[in-house]
Design goal:
Blueprint: H1 2-31, H2 41-73, H3 80-86, H4 89-92, H5 98-111, H6 115-133, E1 140-144, E2 148-154, E3 164-167, E4 171-179, E5 184-185, E6 191-192, E7 196-204, E8 215-219, E9 222-228
Antiparallel strand pairs: 1-2, 2-9, 3-4, 4-7, 5-6, 8-9
Helix pairs in contact: 5-6
Length: about 240
């Protein structure tokens, strides 16, 4: 009999203890002590966002690859605008090394074609790359001082009112018009106006430039883009 009463007392005490624990927990919840995500939740959300962003970009790449592959397979040209559609501002934003990624994509794309199609693709790619990424006849230099790094670009015949420079943390995008010919007299007293051509160039930031510090200065036909110089031993 005593053992039965003893077990009964133990059960009652256990029930009281559990009840008190539940009451304390409910009080904390109502007071907001347990509200909000756990400390690691933001990291989880960031990781999930990055994974979703990567999946979306990969899906976009696959669609673009299939489109280009189909054009070449049918013998259709791949104009520069078809490359610009994929390698747009969204592509450059948020990537650690977008220009390295461009070269990786080129190798992957080229490797999926048969030899004859690969030659066509490489030709279209090289033409687009030259138009967008290479400065060609526009002489470009980089000058460094103790405090800054400056990109200088000579653009003969620059139409200053048609110059637009957009700088992000990942790239420099320069849109401009340049004169390709001089005015000339025509038979009968007419005058042929100077011809202008539009360009769009995309350049990487100098590796030792501080992102977000770019300043533009135009001196005639010379464009200067100055950045603060990263301090040695300081992470960006």
């Amino acid at each position: 009999m005593r053992e039965k009463y003893l077990w009964l007392v133990i059960a009652v005490l256990l029930a009281l203890t559990l009840g008190q624990s539940c009451y304390i927990y409910e009080q904390r919840v109502s007071a907001g002590e347990n509200s909000g995500p756990p400390p690691l939740q933001p990291d989880i959300h960031q990781r999930l966002y990055s994974e979703k962003s990567y999946d979306a970009q990969w899906e976009e790449f696959e669609k673009w690859r299939e489109k280009v592959h189909g054009q070449i397979g049918r013998g259709d040209p791949v104009p520069e605008r078809d490359f610009d559609i994929f390698f747009n501002d969204r592509f450059f934003s948020g990537k650690f090394s977008p220009f390295t990624e461009i070269e990786r994509i080129r190798r992957e794309m080229s490797g999926r074609f048969e030899r004859a199609e690969r030659l066509l693709f490489d030709g279209y790619w090289d033409k687009w790359f030259e138009q967008r990424m290479l400065m060609g006849e526009f002489r470009t230099d980089v000058v460094r001082s103790a405090r800054d790094v400056t990109i200088g670009i000579n653009i003969p015949g620059l139409a200053e009112d048609g110059l637009d420079i957009n700088i992000t943390d990942e790239r420099i995008k320069i849109s401009f018009s340049a004169r390709t010919g001089s005015a000339a007299d025509l038979p009968g007293g007419g005058v042929q106006r100077s011809a202008y051509r539009s360009y769009v160039k995309i350049l990487p930031l100098p590796v030792d430039a501080v992102p977000g510090t770019g300043k533009v200065k135009v001196e005639g036909e010379r464009v200067k883009i100055r950045f603060d110089l990263k301090k040695t031993g300081v992470n960006p």
